[in-house]
């Protein structure tokens, strides 16, 4: 790692862990966080959790795990150029989806619906719950006992009500900024943007691979069309190699988005005149796209939403996935003993059922659904 900017989070100045621990002899606080995340059960489960396409639909489609790795790679590249803390960026990127349900956003929406009268369900808050409570690996505390800065980055979004609840249990903790309306660290802001850059790019790749969208449709999107033409101008032979042409288009698109974020963020920091990481938290969002790139990426996102995420074939599997989650929820509430003992004996049954379902992989959820209902979905 290169030299850190004064705006970077310094692991020697971390706000610490919820439970005090001696420092590790060979790793700083954020490296230790990253290692704990990588060795967690929840992280391993991500390999069998849906990004857009269900796990059984193809071996080469992204999963939550490969998505998280791509976010970490993009995040580290940007952090290095800006002098931010790469280790913290990597830890946040690898942990940001730990609370995601099986079946992607379809599973989250169904579980939130089931929990309407019981506090709702939101995957960012669930990711925090995983690292704070649900992982059981250490004798002295629940969760992974990560540093404040990593936990802050994991909690990208939070309702006012949930923030106030967090504030009661952890005064001045990770929920406070949602009440005060301040920003997280620049590293956390960076991860949020790297997440969007990654999924826009890889959903193009997966969408074309699946046959649900095609290059002809994508050429109507300015961001894609620009780099597609640029690649053809420099490498005319790619006209006869559509797969390589797609890869080269996506590569160029990714690179320019990264450079745009770096340049725009440098300008925003200079304009704000901030000198320290704490000052940066008070200055409003500083990591972002230029106005032109923001518009162009927004157009791409709208295209993917309409043409891929709402494609009839995706919607068909989405409906069945949501049915599986709803019926699993009802079955466990009616028969808690069907869950492992730690979940079945909880004093908050509905939250415990949500925790159990959220932790499932796609294929385990489908097996459990078939076991409990006698019907096979998907």
UniProtKB/TrEMBL annotation:
Hydrolase: is it a keyword of this entry? yes
Stretches assigned to the HD domain: 64-200
| SMART domains per record | HDc (SM00471)
Which GO biological process entries does UniProt record here? dGTP catabolic process
- The reply on keyword Hydrolase is yes
Keywords in alphabetical order, please: Hydrolase
Q: Name one GO molecular function term.
A: dGTPase activity
Q: Pfam families annotated for this entry?
A: HD, HD_assoc
Q: Which family does it belong to?
A: Belongs to the dGTPase family. Type 2 subfamily.
User: Do you know which HAMAP family this protein is assigned to?
Assistant: dGTPase_type2 (MF_01212)
Q: What is this protein called?
A: Deoxyguanosinetriphosphate triphosphohydrolase-like protein
**What is the scientific name of the source organism?**
Limnohabitans parvus II-B4
